[in-house]
Amino acid sequence: MRKMKVIATNRKALRDYHVLDTYEAGIVLKGGEAKSLRQGTVSLSDAYGELVKGEVYLFNLHISPYKFTTQASPPPKRKRKLLLHRKEIKKLCGLVQQRGNTLIPLKIYFSDRGFAKVQIGICRRKRLYDKKEKILKEEVERKIQKIKKAAR
Asked: How many structural domains compose the chain?
């Protein structure tokens, strides 16, 4: 069984997008970014992935600079390369080129071996009526649970 320490999840992506497929990718970090990740100072809210010249990069992933480093820290929102197998990159390239699909990081975590990993998903934006339908279902479920609780 794999143990992983989840650092951050992208709840906004899970709310606004349908996740079609997920992939696990390593992430290239510089300087004190790994220590900063261990402290949990990361924001996934506006991050997205792109294919650039046959490689996958994450943009707008904000990792705050590590306070106790002696080296100059890299910019917090720099583009970061993701480490994937060549076959996975080719598959991602085909899926992302389809209309409406985007790469979005869903969570960042440390694997059981201590490597920083990103779970990226091929996502398609939800329509407004999908969101309203989900809200109505949740309200109905809450009312049913309330009635069941009162009946006990």
From this structure: 1
| Spatial contact of 69 and 36, defined as CB atoms under 8 Å apart | no
In a domain, 140, yes or no: no
Return the structure tokens found at 146.
Answer: 């309330």
Question: What range defines the domain where residue 121 resides?
Answer: 5-125
* pLDDT tens digit sequence for 13-59: 888 888 888 999 999 988 888 888 888 888 888 888 988 888 999 99
Position 47 in a domain? yes
What is the CATH classification number for the domain harbouring 46?
Answer: 2.40.280.10
- Kindly state whether residue 151 falls inside one of the protein's structural domains: no
Query: Dihedral of CA 106/108/112/113: which sign?
Result: positive
CB atoms < 10 A from the CB of 82, how many? Answer: 23
CA atoms of 49 and 64, how far apart (whole Å) = 19
Helices (H) and strands (E) in the chain, counts: 4, 9
